[in-house]
Write a structure and sequence with these properties.
2 helices, 38% strand
């Protein structure tokens, strides 16, 4: 379970492609994404981009931590005008998935060894 599982205001709730509800709390956003113990200014103002990754990721892969999954996609971060791979980590230990953290990554290192849960279907 994410450290911020306690009460908190939600920035958004949405549904992933497997039909599961996922939420991003204000405290997680402030303390683990744009400020607090992690300062990632490229995500300031990118809440809808993150929501879009959860709703329509390229991949969902098991995380090394039990009940957590990594949602991956390549997105345009308008705050710095860069196209980057982004990983959103979601804890699914309760009825509503809880976004734990978000990373802009320089390269994909996943091998699928932990288990690929979902791959976005090709569009026609």
């Amino acid at each position: 379970m994410c450290k911020e599982k306690a009460k908190g205001e939600y920035i958004f709730t949405t549904t992933d492609p497997l039909g599961r509800m996922v939420a991003l709390k204000q405290t997680t956003w402030n303390m683990h994404v744009i400020d607090g113990d992690h300062y990632r200014p490229e995500f300031i103002g990118q809440e809808e981009t993150i929501k879009g990754i959860i709703e329509d990721p390229k991949f969902i892969v098991k995380d090394p931590i039990e009940n957590r999954e990594r949602y991956y996609d390549i997105v345009h971060l308008t705050s710095n005008n860069k196209i980057k791979p982004v990983m959103v980590v979601v804890d699914h230990s309760t009825d509503i998935g809880d976004v734990c953290t978000i990373f802009s990554i320089s390269r994909m290192r996943e091998t699928g060894e932990r288990g690929i849960i979902y791959v976005r279907p090709k569009r026609k």
